[in-house]
Amino acid sequence: MKFLTFIVMIFSSTFVLSEVFEDPKPLFSKDNPNFVESSKEVNSWPMKRLHVKEFQPLVFWGKDQILTQSGRLLKFKTKENLKLVNIEANRNNIDFVLRYFFELNQILKGSNLVLNRILIEEFDLMTLEDNSGLRFHMNKSKIENQLENLKTFLKSEYFNNIKDTFSYLDLRYQNKGAIGFRD
Fold first, then answer.
1. What is the pLDDT of residues 35-66, one digit of tens each?
2. Tally of domains within the chain
3. Which of 143, 146, 158, 183 is the most exposed place for a label (fewest CB within 10 A)?
């Protein structure tokens, strides 16, 4: 009798998994564009559990990849329903993005700006762009001072007065900035 109960429980747990995941096999396929890193089946009487560890997407990297919070680049076929910042840079900049992305994003959010894109070019040039087209130019090598200058500028009364005509701020000058205006 115990053996029959065990078989029924295995069948029912498989059935429950099939209900949760309409087709459970593609969930673990390498070709599937999801964020499953690993899965582990844990057998505990009377239930069977499935532990799934997911990658957490951080930003879009280039045209067809996503950078995860753990620093891994994954190919992704579609961008549907994901509202992530676009990054255009080479792979050498992954550590830099992981280190400073949240701080850059929070600085802009503090002034009601939404970070839309980061472009990291050769020769240390980095450009942040918000969803309205405002651009902020910086050097990667002196980022700490430039972040402080950006915070100060965005909190200033001067920025609030010129917000509608402002086009870009170049922070690559030591303790100074160059401002560009729209035509």
1. 666 666 777 667 777 777 777 888 999 888 98
2. 2
3. 183
Residue pLDDT, tens place only, 140-167:
988 999 999 999 999 999 988 888 888 9
Tokens read off for 147: 């972040």
For residues 78 and 34, membership in a common domain is answered with: no
Which range marks the domain in which residue 39 is found? Answer: 2-54
Do 174 and 122 share a structural domain? yes
How far apart are the C-alpha atoms of 155 and 107, rounded to whole Å? 10
